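Lab notes, practical 5.
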Amino acid sequence: MGDVTIFLILALATAVAAFIQGAVGIGFALVVAPVMGLLRPDLLPVALLILMLPLNGYVGLRERDAIDWKGVGWVSLGRLPGTLAGLGILVVMSADGLNQVIGASTILAVLAGLFAPVFQPNRSACAAVGLITGVTETATGVGGPPLALLYQHRPGPVLRATIALCFLVGELISLAILALAGQFQPHQWLWALALLPALAVGSIASRLVHHRLDARRMRLGVLTFALISGIVLLIPR
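Output from the prediction step:
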């Protein structure tokens, strides 16, 4: 498959994923990471993390009045040690091994999203989710499902804005540590920059309809897609 075809597929996935994330609060990494893992695993996790910075900044700013600031603080505190652990996984894994980790973590996240019991976020839960998210997002770019579970029973604006800010802080931490560890490559930045217009299209579209969508059905659609993608990534090639 040529680079142009791969780029068009990734651009489509980025636009759709940005629309879903902007409307529901999760879904970007669940959609983009498996597709990127299948087509260009060398772009993970840096290109994915770079793309998520403007997306989450936009969503957080759009609904900033609904942010749970205490929750963001505890999640960010737990994120620090998790980020270092995620870096360790990334350093020792081959591309095929990383695909296996992405596939397995995606499937586990989907199952948790479908079957986790109702609970209210507290300090311990926030810190624990921050730890888990630090590991998975730094290693694979996928970190949304634990945060979505944490806030899944809160109002939509609270879920979207708080998760967006948690992502934004966490992604900056992950990118800084990845940079210090020498895990950045120029082509990862170039691909991320090239995909920014597709990200903008999806984000702007989500603003027009985010208050009218059936979030539950869209969330189930995202989880179904992620489950299928995770299974495909686990198939040996």
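Observations recorded by the TA: Residues 136 and 143 are 6 Å apart (CA to CA). The mean pLDDT is 84.
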